[in-house]
Write a structure and sequence with these properties.
Helix content is 47%, strand content 19%. It has 250 residues and is α+β, with helices and mostly antiparallel strands. Helix 2 crosses helix 3 and helix 5 runs antiparallel to helix 10.
Length: 250
């Protein structure tokens, strides 16, 4: 593939990145402006993506993400190594605690929930599979970041400094590093109303042999339960489950 063809393909696939919670549909004109391409080029991208099922026409010359993405998501779930080996363990956790169990992954610096095993009375979560979560709020992102090596963590500190400070994390690099070193040493993190004010979570990373993380698992419950649950037992259950899944993946 020539450099110009590769660049054109990259821009065309960039159309898919233009959709989010505030832009559920787009017009060809929107796409042309956002990608800084001509209107005929934008229409060509749209036509090809329609043919591939990655876009669909909805109304008034607006386009939305297409049905093929649903099919691809099905295959992504089936191929997910954590879910392939971990589902029985997640279900055991839910049965033992009565709380929802959520699996969360870090893709680059994008935090996404990939699965939720629900209890009998599931919590009302604003986030779910596929909706990006904040990087510095909540138990799952913090245990995932705690597995970063110092150089990798420093890049995060420098590139997202304003955001992390606004989330209440240390503005000083040495303090920031110590903060996540403490989480890593503990092997878990308990959040209380950080992401959603009514929810608490106990999270632990599923570790790889190289010290990184496959994903994080979290038990999620109402903050009012913090006063009555056996938190020490919860921590034991979630860290043991994470270890068992990690061992199976190894």
């Amino acid at each position: 593939m020539s450099e110009s063809s590769s660049s054109s393909l990259e821009r065309m696939l960039g159309v898919l990145d233009l959709f989010d919670d505030t832009h559920l549909t787009r017009t060809a004109e929107d796409i042309a402006v956002a990608l800084e391409v001509s209107l005929p080029t934008s229409y060509r991208y749209v036509r090809l993506l329609l043919q591939a099922g990655l876009l669909q026409r909805v109304e008034d010359s607006h386009y939305a993400l297409g049905p093929r993405i649903i099919l691809l998501d099905h295959y992504i779930r089936r191929a997910d190594p954590v879910l392939r080996v971990g589902l029985p363990i997640l279900r055991e956790l839910v049965t033992a605690t009565g709380f929802d169990c959520v699996v969360t992954g870090l893709f680059g610096l994008q935090v996404l929930d990939t699965y939720r095993e629900m209890a009998g009375a599931p919590a009302a979560l604003a986030y779910g599979r596929g909706r990006p979560r904040p990087l510095f709020l909540g138990g799952a992102p913090k245990v995932l970041l705690s597995t970063f090596g110092s150089p990798q963590l420093k890049k995060v500190f420098e590139s997202r400094h304003d955001e992390l400070v606004s989330c209440g994390l240390p503005a000083d690099w040495a303090e920031f590093r110590r903060y996540f070193a403490a989480i890593r040493k503990a092997g878990h993190y308990v959040s209380n109303g950080e992401l959603e004010p009514q929810l608490a979570a106990v999270a632990a990373p599923i570790l790889k042999s190289d010290g990184g993380a496959w994903a994080a698992i979290s038990l999620v419950f109402d903050t009012s339960r913090l006063a009555i649950v056996d938190l020490e037992k919860m921590v034991h259950l979630i860290t043991e489950a994470a270890t068992r899944i990690g061992d199976r993946l190894a």
